[in-house]
Amino acid sequence: MKTYQNFVGGKMTPGITGAEAAIVAPATEETIAKVPSGTAKDVDRAVEAAASAFEKWVDTTPGERSLMLLKLADRIESHAEELAQLEAANVGKPIALARAEIPFLVDNLRFFAGACRCMEGKAAGEYLAGYTSIIRREPVGVVASIAPWNYPLMMAIWKIGPALAAGNTVVLKPAEQTPLTSLRLAELAADIFPPGVFNVITGDGEPVGAGLVKHPKVAMVSLTGDVATGKEIAKAASATLKKVHLELGGKAPVLIFDDADMELVIPGIKMAGFANSGQDCTAACRLYASRRIYDKLLAELVPAVESIALGDIADENTAMGPVVSAEQRQRVAGFVERAQKSGHVRVLTGGNKGDGRGFWYRPTVVADARQGDEIVQKEVFGPVITVTPFASDDEAIRWANDVDYGLSASVWTTSVNRALNAARKLRFGTVWINDHLPLVSEMPHGGYKQSGYGKDMSMYALEDYTQVKHVMARIAQSVGASFLPS
Q1: Given CA atoms 371, 375, 379, 382 in this order, what sign does their dihedral have?
Q2: pLDDT at site 92
Q3: Which residue in 102, 221, 286, 473 has its CB near the most CB atoms, within 10 A?
Q4: First vs last Cα of the chain: how many Å apart?
Q5: pLDDT at residue 480 above 90?
Q6: How many CA atoms does the CB half-sphere of 293 hold within 13 Å?
Q7: Mean pLDDT over residues 311-339, rounded?
């Protein structure tokens, strides 16, 4: 069992109090590591290091920052198997899934390494006689990045990539349950960035997360997490008017029209609904199927879900692991149990815990769910999908939009007009057609409504981590005063 340290000011550093927290493997319930239990003093030390480093980091060129990000991408790639194994153990992911994530997050870093060299202001010219205006995009300052437990390494990269590329310094707080790959990332990055540019500290939301949000030298907070936490962070950040970037929960609708290709639908939902044990804010968890194909869909979907291989996460053939903790399993089970008490839903498969040690919950299909049901309206964040029949396209779209969330959705049809009409009307940040889940570094990821604001990935993310400055230069000796009041 390894004992980790925080990474502050360019070196691994023990927590100030020496207190430690145990990290438990979801698949075995064994303690696999210990990490510092952070305090307000740990927050102060990390933020001070980042603020001091920003004074010089802000003057680096995009080309210099790009080379460092490329070096980090290469370093991650060369340690891919080690990081995948660590991620699998800490999160409970099947090793095949953990391995598949590494090339994508490496690509994210390489994208931002190139993108930061292309960022520019949108206007430069003479808009008032005798003056030239210039638009500059400048870094915000110290960014507090708060990452979730479901994709700890990937979300860390989604946050630090654009933040560092734009010229900010970062204090990263990984989720208290899954900090190990973020701490290993810090070790791998130790000789790449100047001291204090990238820092990682561990601890609970209170005092570490809250301390970062409230710290006067933190200029921006970036959170990926649940809606309730996002609201608290936005409220706390308002005291100092910090910039806030929020990627929050989701309840992705999956609209399956009567002309959908079932050879695409069934494997698509099997993967997108249960990958990472359904612990994904974009998971295909809320199915709406045309009444004309409803029974056929269930007849094909249930055996497909029952075929999902659970077991040893080190086995490449395992498709689904446990959920992250006993608390999370109880939360998921509670949704299903309350739905069953309604009397109108049918649990067609799953709905119960797995055997043996570990936080297992079997992949679950809940049929005949109604629009007003809690399990339809609220994010379960586990291996549970609901299926609801609809009578018309308009009804399906209306129900899809009738939740607080707006992160992602998918439409399944062989009609181009039907697909584009639904994509236009769905109030979600991403809409897939005849697929669900694929992401690329060049395209933005972010939500509508209570799924938050701000974008991850793409040039839009890079812009989110900057602020706009107008510079106006007088270029004539004598200038009229037409812009002044008479």
Answers
A1: negative
A2: 98
A3: 286
A4: 76
A5: no
A6: 20
A7: 97
Q: How far apart are CA 144 and CA 204, in angstroms?
A: 14
Q: Please spell the DSSP secondary structure of 361-405, one letter per residue.
A: B--EEEES--TTSHHHHS---SSEEEEEEESSHHHHHHHHH-SS-
Dist CA 5 CA 12 (whole Å): 6
Strands (E), 78-160: 124-128, 131-139, 142-146
Q: Is 328 helix (H, G, I), strand (E, B) or coil?
A: helix
187 to each of 41, 45, 83, 97, 348, how far by Cα in Å?
Answer: 22, 18, 12, 23, 47
Q: Position of tokens 């069934």? A: 266
CA distance 367 to 256: 14
pTM over 0.85: yes
Angle between helices 152-165 and 80-91 (to 10 degrees): 120
Residue type, 173: K
Q: What is the DSSP string of 6-68?
A: EEETTEEE--SS--EEEEE-TTT--EEEEEE---HHHHHHHHHHHHHHHHHHTTS-HHHHHHH
Q: Using CB atoms within 10 A of its CB, is residue 302 exposed (0-12), middle (13-18) or buried (19+)?
A: middle
DSSP state of 117: T
Question: CA-to-CA distance for 18 and 39, rounded, in angstroms?
Answer: 10
> What's phi and psi for 178, nearest 5 deg?
-135, 65
Active-site residue list: 247, 281
Give the contacts of 452 (CB within 8 A, at least 6 positions apart).
230, 246, 247, 248, 407, 446
CA distance 446 to 427: 12
Q: Are 311 and 319 in contact (CB under 8 A)?
A: no
Rounded to a whole number of angstroms, the CA Rg of the chain reads 24
Q: For every residue of 401-421, which 3-state class applies, written as one string?
A: HCCCCCCEEEEECCCHHHHHH
Question: In whole angstroms, what separates CA 167 from the centre of its chain?
Answer: 21
Order of all β-strands in the sheet with 346-349: 346-349, 364-367, 384-390, 284-290, 252-256, 408-412, 430-433
Strands 6-8 and 2-3: unpaired
